[in-house]
Amino acid sequence: MRKDDAGMKAAIGTAIDTMVADGSMAAIVDKWGIAQGVVQPPGPSVAAGARMGFDPREFLDFTFTWREVLVGALVTTLLMAVLAQVLGIMLGLLAALGSRSRNLVAKRAAGLYVWVFRGTPVLVQIALLYYGIPSLLGLDPFPKQYGSLPELIGGAFLAATLALGINEGAYMSEIIRAGILSVDPGQAEAAKSLGMTPGKTMSRIVLPQALRVIVPPLGNEFNNMLKTTSLASVVGVTELLLLAQNRYGGTFKPFEPLIGICVYYLLLTTLWGFVQGRIEMRLGTGLSRNEPDRGLVARLTGIGRHTGQNGGIR
Q1: Which of 49, 231, 259, 284 would suit a FRET pair with 213, their CA atoms being 20 to 30 Å apart?
Q2: What are the structural domain ranges in the chain?
Q3: How far apart are CA 143 and CA 139, in angstroms?
């Protein structure tokens, strides 16, 4: 815990006092031989009585008993993934446009952003944002709870979501840039000849066609984001991995809950796979990915039907 987290210190102190009062602390001390402050392995009787192997009852109870904490972990995982991905798309679009800008400052800033956040581990970025920023600023922008807002979206959740989104933006920048480059430059030239501004050309002509190239890797990125949210457990966000860790911390049976959360990750990614397939099918209707939209080119240029010339642009 962080040194200035008075609430967590008080909660742990209360828990320890309760364990001392009801005798459970004495049982733990006796079991592990730590009465003198030296940790010893459990005695032969404990080791002999330990159950080995897979426990089906523990697996079924953890995985398929719908407790409030399990629902909360699933909601946290999904919410964090969606928010981080949306933030990543927005930052990626800005960085992609910045990298194509004629403004040297914007171009260099976009390049630096992509270089830094693609070149450093996302786990380090989460820890840096949650632990490092408060130390640097001398204040805590990520408290446990923001006023009356639910604890679910407290400081740890916000820091992890921001770190995941900022990291994702660096990758989305390259995906979006590749999508923009895949559109025939002649179409932008045709739009310019009709007096369309660069902003309208990008939003109405280039980006809609670039989506056919952007969406498949974007879907894969979100699939990956669903799994990467597990890294938020290092700052105390109760998503699926931390839920499993809390479970086997009390039962000393790590295999069953870890397999249980694998079931949920597989379920989430499989469902998203179906959604992604439908989106790709809808975007690809009536147009080959490898051919330009010649009807759009003809409408932009106004030639072809009116002049009898070829409506294609090279």
Answers
A1: 231
A2: 1-45, 57-285
A3: 10
